[in-house]
Specification:
This protein has helices spanning about 1-15, 15-45, 55-60, 70-90, 95-105, 120-150, 155-165, 165-190, 205-220, 225-235, 240-245, 245-260, 265-290. With about 290 residues, it is mostly helical. The chain is flat and about 65 Å long. The relative contact order is 0.08.
Length: about 290
Amino acid sequence: MKSIRRVFRFLVQVLLAPIWLPWKAVRGVARWLYRKRKQLQEALHAEPEEQPLSDAAQEAFQNPAALLPHLNALRKHLLRATAFWVLMTALSFALTPRLLDFLAMPMGGIRHLQAIEVTEPLIVFMRVSLLAGFALSLPYIYFELYLYVAPALRPRARILGLTGMPLVLLFFVGGMAFAYYVMLPVALPFLLNFMGIPTVPRPASYIRFVTSLLFWVGLSFEFPLLVYLLAAIGWVRADHLIRHWRVAVVVIAVLAAVITPTVDPVNMLLVMAPMILLYLLGVGLARLAQH
């Protein structure tokens, strides 16, 4: 008799699944948003400890066990950010075929790439999905890191840091657009026609090359926002950035040499020019954050 009841209950749950599954999903999202709102309120109203950075570093060095609660809190924020990245990566599976066609457009489409390994299409699919998932989850990753550092900030810095959340995605997408529309059209002809050797790119090598370029250039475009937030916290000042502009140009040149997919100076200058402009933009934003 009990087994019949269990079967009947199971059948009822299956039949009513189109009703209770969406309801549970909506309720779960509502609870998640409520918890995030509560965490944000706690972060905005927490009282920061007025302690110099040198004293805090010395105390942590003398008593490493005092860092364990902070490390545990950071671990939780990183786990939530990673879980959201995985979720966005899974959701981006539906868009990945279109993204692959878009990324392969400079080569004439995905059909002009020739795979030689059985697992190559799967690796390419996952690589593009990971990049798309990272781009979609970037504001939330920033939000989790903000929740971690906000209690240690002053009220004005907390507000300024919160306003930077939507700009994270804007700057990252802007960097990827610059790499795709400006750098790729210059780099690909040089690489594909070097020494007159005919080249038939593999999907794995081509997509790895393109996604790496988009990722690192997108991250480099986050520099002005990073400088703005550090200036709002008080760790960076605009006059210091202006005074050390020569050092900044050398560092930018090294980074451009690492990011640049080719060895020719044209592509290196294509990376250096916007990075120098981003540095100047960061100086302006730092001065704005100080007032």
